[in-house]
Records
---
Amino acid sequence: MVNTDYAVQAVKGIKKSFDNAASLKIKEYMDSRLFNFENVSEVSEIFTSTEGMTGAKELSQLETPPSLRLEDGYSVTLTEKRFGGAIVLPEATYRRDGNDTTLKVNLFLQRQRNQLLVSNVNLFLTNIHKMYNEAFSSTSEFLAPDGVELCGAHTWKSGATFDNGVTAVFSESAVDSAMEFGGAFTDAAGVPMPVNYDTIVVKKGSATARNAKKLFAFNISPVAVNDINIYEGTMRVIETPYITYANRLNWFLIDSSKEIPMYVGIGEMPTLRAPIIENNEAIRTNCTGFWKQGVNNMPYNVFWSTGAA
């Protein structure tokens, strides 16, 4: 028979491995260039988009340079949310079940730990990818600072406009159009601010993903005489399973040299808390974490298509 003290210590024994695994799994996505990840201490954060700076001029020999200032854009406030789950070790499992109760408890906890890790990390990744999956249809939670879906007809606070949402099927000609759009982009004051797309995001395993790799990958042979791939090796292709099947035709271009507007502020990684002995003698262990997410800047450095037509 395993007593309560041993069972509690066994639960505590899985904490470090769980916390480390959760942190490492989430950190894999921090390097993906899909989001702007930050570890933060603030529960709520206020962001103000900047729309450029004007006023620089040619000066005479003794003229005082004019003072320039950033043109402030929209204000955005993001507040973190709490998420998590729990595992429960029933009294019968650690007191009565099985002949080798020590082994029984350890195996039971390892299986629960593994499933809890998968469940919580999946929840986190599914939620942050909503900014991609709802890029054309978000109702309120993941709108750009101007109140428009991430992909659509945007208006700078100063009144100028741009449209970063199209419907073109992925193809070389569609990429040509996107590159032309990026090369001609101007900021809110009409000053040239070229966007250099270097990352394409697609649904893992989709036809769009296969075509993207054919277009951008190294060492792909032309399929016809004089068929030269001018985009060979110029784009990082990211396939993610968290783009939904319904959005498998979507493709997303990003200039990762500029701040990614899809923001994720992590207050605390998923963490196992101290075990609690319940009234029924079961041992409950909660896993909780805190994060905030949203579009914290005008999405001028992204160009996205539904791939529908």
Note: The longest helix spans residues 101-128.
---
Amino acid sequence: MTLDQYLSTAEITAAEFGGRCDPPISEASISRIRRGDQNISRDVMLRIIAASDGKITAEGLLARRQGLAA
């Protein structure tokens, strides 16, 4: 699942989701990652996956960056 799909399904904002990450990730960064406009480190990727209880996948995060997700 992509970050975009997760946020839409869970009906939460980028700010709310960023606050769930440990440590928190800014709303701006979550929005850029959601659009595929920001490179992310392995650490950030793991924080996002953990905050989604594993629903967001590494493949989902990378697919958006590589232009594979709609």
Note: The helical segments are 3-10, 14-20, 27-35, 42-51, 58-65.
---
Amino acid sequence: MKHVKLFEAFVNEGKVASKTFAMDFSDLVSQIEEEYDFEEDLSTENMLYILGQAWAEVAEQNNFNELMSELTSTYAKFNIKTDSKFMKANLTKEGRSFGENAYGLTGYNLDGMIECFGAAMAEFGLVKPAQWKKMANWIEQEVM
């Protein structure tokens, strides 16, 4: 069975599934909201925090350098606020878990990460597309 999974990973390597990534993130948001409180929705700041944690997990799995692993420092550079508190939910754990599970959807590379995380942000209108493009350009410059 392990050989089958390794083969599937090899075949799918480099394929980016940004729509699936965005839908999975949407499902996660719904799950957290339902689990902790039906009347309160996650804020934009909460969702950005979760994506920051997911980014860190995916970057770690890609063996990127430490600068690259911090989407939160990119948020700070662009004056984007995040919030780690939502009821009793552990948003750090939720974000890391999401990143671990969604890692393969990013195509195992920086361009795929940028595409997937941009799609998730666009799904909820968390940042404007032009702003994400600027952020992505800054991230790419940091890597080089």
Note: The chain has seven helices and two strands.
---
Amino acid sequence: MKERTPADPLRGEAAFRAQKAEIAKRNESARADGAARRAAKEARISEQQVADDRRERSNLPHQPHP
């Protein structure tokens, strides 16, 4: 059987599988980037909500103690 040299381009099914693997790798990378961005955005939103809640509680009237 003849061995391929790196200069020989892939053909047919091998080319298809290589392209499919490359696309899957890019998709996984994009998915990980998206998850990191979503986590950072949700953390900022959560911090903002905590600050808003704290500010709102500080403006509430206090009940008198007998």
Note: The first helix runs from residue 12 to 58.
